[in-house]
């Protein structure tokens, strides 16, 4: 191969690598921008802090440690049976869980009700299949306090690395297209 042809090929290859690099940076920037804006419609409070760890017992008797869910996107919802907005959003939480099942997503709800029999009776009355809503019990409200939760419902969107990305105060329609898109942006 002649030196002139070799130089031309080298220059062409360098230009192709440069253009490809610029293209990939632009695409990466666009994806990052889309992820950052996907949750805007839900009007949450952006966060960037590590989720406090806790361990609570579910209504099925199993202990669940929040940090054991690392590697999955987690929607953590603090609620109570005596809170009308909490009760209103339960069907959409169940629907969201069904829509994202098997996609690296976990729904965790924490009831701060003080009496376990009241909580169990509520779920039996209001849900066709109570197992569709995973509920942990925290009557002392310690886990809610660790998150800084003061109002109910409060919901936290936690990424796969255990970092809180969004905080939502009050109810949302978690089965909406915007809610699903927001969560899928972190998957």
Oligomer: single chain
Report the top-level CATH class of the largest domain: Alpha Beta
Distance between the termini: 49 Å
- Chain-averaged pLDDT: 85
Shape: globular
How many E strands? 8
State the secondary-structure class: alpha+beta
Residue share in β-strands? 15-25%
In CATH, the topology of the largest domain is named Glutaredoxin
Number of helices: 5
Q: Which stretches of 5+ consecutive residues score pLDDT under 50? A: 18-24, 26-33
- Within the largest sheet, what's the order of strands? 1-8-7-4-5-6-2-3
Mind summarizing the main beta sheet?
A: 8 strands, mixed
Known CATH architecture of the largest domain: 3-Layer(aba) Sandwich
What name goes with the CATH superfamily of the largest domain?
Glutaredoxin
Radius of gyration: 22 Å
């Amino acid at each position: 191969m002649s030196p002139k042809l070799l130089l031309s090929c080298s220059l062409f290859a360098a230009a192709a690598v440069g253009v490809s690099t610029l293209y990939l940076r632009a695409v990466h920037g666009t994806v990052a921008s889309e992820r950052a804006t996907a949750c805007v419609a839900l009007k949450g409070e952006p966060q960037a802090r590590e989720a406090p760890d806790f361990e609570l017992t579910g209504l099925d008797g199993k202990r669940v440690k929040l940090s054991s869910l690392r590697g999955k996107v987690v929607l953590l919802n603090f609620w109570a049976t005596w809170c009308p907005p909490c009760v209103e959003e339960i069907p959409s939480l169940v629907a969201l869980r069904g829509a994202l099942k098997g996609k690296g997503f976990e729904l965790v709800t924490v009831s701060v009700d003080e009496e376990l029999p009241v909580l169990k009776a509520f779920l039996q009355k209001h849900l066709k299949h109570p197992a569709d809503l995973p509920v942990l019990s925290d009557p002392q409200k310690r886990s809610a306090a660790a998150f800084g939760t003061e109002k109910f419902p409060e919901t936290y969107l936690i990424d796969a690395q255990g970092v809180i990305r969004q905080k939502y105060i009050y109810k949302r329609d978690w089965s909406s297209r915007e809610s699903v898109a927001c969560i899928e942006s972190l998957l």
